[in-house]
Specification:
Elements lengths: L8 E8 L2 H11 L3 E8 L2 E10 L8 E6 L12 E9 L4 H10 L8 E3 L3 E7 L5 E6 L23 E8 L3 H10 L3 E6 L2 E5 L8 E6 L13 E8 L2 H13 L8 E2 L4 E6 L5 E6 L27 H7 L7 H10 L1
Parallel strand pairs: 1-4, 5-8, 9-12, 13-16
Antiparallel strand pairs: 1-13, 2-3, 3-4, 5-9, 6-7, 7-8, 10-11, 11-12, 14-15, 15-16
């Protein structure tokens, strides 16, 4: 079986505590669309919330498990230490002021590789995010219902940053196995890209030989998923990864994509997720995120599940956009 290449980042999944606070921050403040409200299929007593662009395009999707009683995580080695979004050049002044108006502290923009400007901020649970202004960001469309002007709005992922004790084995996996190539380095940061490259297809590595291991809990990334074309491609990857000695899971049905999981040598959990079937699998584009969606094997438990979940209010701009599109 011919194995097609990885095409970039599919999604990033993180852990939060309060579901409503999470929605308010990512929809109300950052202007992402609530693409899907479902549950953690392995723990249906908690939501699984998906945010992204209008359609939840692979490469735009940040998801959360909001566990109300989760302890606070900590950043360290063996973790995805930052998740970066793309914004157009010149947008960071707007974002600094918007965040400050809501009491969200952000560092002053700093320069990074390839003349990028980076604004670092933290969500209410302490998850480290970055907004990276760079040439070409406007080639991807923002969600029109965000209430944020097109010249400032988020355009999907730029990259993720992994922090490792040492880089050698991780570089080997990214390059020799997964098809990433080295494209830039500087100030202790090494950048790799895959597929057609550029924003949404980049992984940065930071080396911290003396750093302590991070704790995956509230305010940290659970896993990073990369894009594969379809089920056939995923099957080929599963066989290849297993042959290389990686402990890869069987295929998991996540309704909107199919997934396999494995850990890279430094400990970060990776996923390979299929692009199809996508988020319109069980509700139309205009109604995405408007109701609780459950997989068939959980439908019989819907009354119990709904009773256990907190009610969510989606910020008005998002609701108005969905209604106008209907």
């Amino acid at each position: 079986m011919v194995k097609s290449g990885i095409e970039g980042i599919h999604h990033v999944t993180a852990i939060a505590r309060d579901a409503q606070r999470n929605v308010d921050f990512y929809v109300g403040l950052l202007g992402l669309r609530l693409v899907k409200r479902t549950v953690n299929f392995d723990d249906p007593g908690t939501y699984h919330l998906y945010y992204g662009d209008e359609a939840g395009t692979p490469g735009s999707i940040l998801t959360f498990f909001p566990w109300a009683h989760a302890v606070r995580g900590s950043r360290g080695v063996g973790q995805t230490s930052a998740t970066a979004f793309s914004v157009p050049e010149g947008a960071l002044g707007y974002w600094r002021d918007r965040l400050a108006s809501q009491g969200v502290l952000a560092a002053e923009p700093a320069e990074r590789l390839d003349r990028e400007s980076v604004l670092t901020l933290f969500d209410p649970d302490g998850l480290q995010l970055e907004l990276i202004a760079h040439a070409g960001a406007e080639e991807r469309s923002p969600w029109a219902g965000s209430g944020i002007s097109e010249r400032h709005a988020i355009r999907g992922f730029h990259s993720v940053t992994l922090t490792e004790h040492s880089l050698g084995a991780t570089v080997g996996l990214l390059g020799e196995t997964m098809g990433f190539r080295s494209v830039a380095s500087g100030a202790g940061r090494s950048r790799f890209e895959v597929g057609s490259g550029g924003a949404g297809a980049q992984v940065d590595l930071l080396e911290d030989p003396s750093g302590g291991h991070g704790r995956v809990a509230a305010g940290s990334v659970h896993h990073v998923a990369f894009r594969v074309e379809d089920d056939a491609a995923q099957s080929a990857w599963l066989a290849d990864l297993a042959e290389r000695g990686l402990h890869v899971t069987p295929v998991q049905d996540r309704q909107y994509f199919h997934s396999i999981y494995y850990r890279e040598p430094g400990g970060v959990l990776f996923e390979l997720a299929t692009d199809p079937p996508g988020f319109t699998f069980d509700e139309p584009l205009a109604a995405l995120g408007s109701g609780l969606k459950l997989p068939p094997w959980l439908e019989a438990a819907r009354p119990r599940i709904e009773a256990a979940l907190p009610k969510l209010q989606v910020p008005a701009a998002a609701v108005a956009s969905a209604e106008s599109a209907a």
